[in-house]
Amino acid sequence: MNTALKHWKEAATVILAAGTRRSPVTEPPLRSADRVTFPHKTAFDYEVLLLKRSGKSGFMPNAYVFPGGLAEASDFSGEWMDLFKFFRKLPNFGIGVMKQPLEARPPMFATDRARLGSPVPGDVAFRICAVRETFEEAGVLLVVPSKEAERLVTDALFSPAAATERWDRSVIAEWRSLVIQNSSNFIRMCRELDCLPNIWAMHEWGNWLTPTGVYGKQRRYDTAFYMCCLKEIPDTVHDQKEIVHFKWSSPSEILCSYRDKEIWIAPPQFYDLGRMCNFPLLRDLHSFARQRSLEGCEQWLPVRLLATDSYISLLPGDSLYPENPDFLGKMNISAPAEKCLEELQRESVHTSNEYWEESTRFKGSLESENQHCARTPLMVSSTFFDYCLYECVLVSHRHKSGTDSQDQNLTLKEGSKTRVQH
């Protein structure tokens, strides 16, 4: 944990995608303005976990989020080195060697943790954080027995129930209470239960910075996003404190609920759920996430733009995204020529990543092209801008355009190379 950071606090979150027992049904995808949008909800054979934050929360009250939270000193504790002693000799504790050059890695991953007093690499510690927070907030314990870790760490889908069936539920519940009280108890739990956080099931997915001027100066996070695919939906119990409700739903169901103003999700959730719409089948999502994890990611900072009738959240790669983003929140950005959303949408060449917000009519997002190609969503709005929908980049489109190379399938469409200097 980097305590020297002045503007952000480091955090980790995990997108849990769990298989359902129903078989996917082939249905025509939802369409808007004759453009393909996301698959029908029945096309998915998995669901995603969302947690509703308390209305009393000082950060994004009532929002639906993925499990996650702040990194703690215990996540970087040297005590983990003994627990992971078998994996210490493997590259990155068995996670694998990152293809992305160190100088191109987001700062939270590139930072030399040994210089900060921790022998645990950031790639490992943030995964531990994601596992711990998921246990605290949702009661889902993503661990593997230590003696079987080498055998269980495979490319297969992870089954939390099978890994934790040796322990009585009351024992797990008691440990959860202790971990919520003090994060260092997570190390104690793993030692006494002889288990390890399943860091190998956590596939690097992205890195998001909290935008400036939205949640207050003291509420900004540098968050690692991971994808974790589970064989089945695990028992889930929210903590009744920070989290007041949970729901498992398909990506398209969540996006529809957001469009219909039944729930509110932030830009990262909205964007990543759209990415997942490219993969209605869990096995395809898992394969993609596992293989692209070692490609690395870029750090993304949404930038808010004020139009005459709406707020717009811009992402790197959008034509209106500033060349030198205001990472510290010292400047106010207003739309050029005081234009409205429709005018900006019509005139902008690359508006793909843009997450459009209008308090009285709709909230949505668009997606553009950028240098890393592949799996990202595209929002499409109706003639009257009543709502926006993601447009999936379907596999069939790749073959039609002749862009079905392995590299394109494994990398992300991401924007500029802008990096933050903490």
Automatic annotation (TrEMBL):
Single GO MF descriptor: metal ion binding
Asked if Metal-binding is a keyword of the record, the answer is yes
Q: Which PROSITE patterns match?
A: NUDIX
Claim: Nuclease is one of the keywords in the record: no
SUPFAM superfamilies in UniProt: Nudix
* Segments of this protein annotated with the region Disordered: 401-422
Q: Which Gene3D superfamilies is this protein grouped with? A: Nucleoside Triphosphate Pyrophosphohydrolase (3.90.79.10)
What keywords are assigned to this protein? Hydrolase, Magnesium, Manganese, Metal-binding
Query: What are the annotated GO cellular component locations?
Result: mitochondrion
Provide the reaction this enzyme catalyses. Answer: CoA + H2O = (R)-4'-phosphopantetheine + adenosine 3',5'-bisphosphate + 2 H(+); (9Z)-tetradecenoyl-CoA + H2O = S-(9Z-tetradecenoyl)-4'-phosphopantetheine + adenosine 3',5'-bisphosphate + 2 H(+); (6Z)-octenoyl-CoA + H2O = S-(6Z-octenoyl)-4'-phosphopantetheine + adenosine 3',5'-bisphosphate + 2 H(+); (9Z,12Z,15Z)-octadecatrienoyl-CoA + H2O = S-(9Z,12Z,15Z-octadecatrienoyl)-4'-phosphopantetheine + adenosine 3',5'-bisphosphate + 2 H(+)
Per its Swiss-Prot or TrEMBL entry, what cofactor is needed? Mn(2+); Mg(2+)
Domain (Nudix hydrolase): give its ranges. Answer: 20-271
The protein's matches in InterPro entries, at most eight in alphabetical order, are given as: NUDIX_hydrolase-like_dom_sf (IPR015797), NUDIX_hydrolase_dom (IPR000086), NUDT19 (IPR039121)
Q: Which family does it belong to?
A: Belongs to the Nudix hydrolase family.
Q: Summarize the protein's role.
A: Fatty acyl-coenzyme A (CoA) diphosphatase that hydrolyzes fatty acyl-CoA to yield acyl-4'-phosphopantetheine and adenosine 3',5'-bisphosphate. Mediates the hydrolysis of a wide range of CoA esters, including choloyl-CoA and branched-chain fatty-acyl-CoA esters and at low substrate concentrations medium and long-chain fatty-acyl-CoA esters are the primary substrates. Highest activity seen with medium-chain acyl-CoA esters and higher rates of activity seen with the unsaturated acyl-CoA esters compared with the saturated esters. Exhibits decapping activity towards dpCoA-capped RNAs in vitro.
Q: What is this protein called?
A: Acyl-coenzyme A diphosphatase NUDT19
To which species is this protein native?
Answer: Pygocentrus nattereri (Red-bellied piranha)
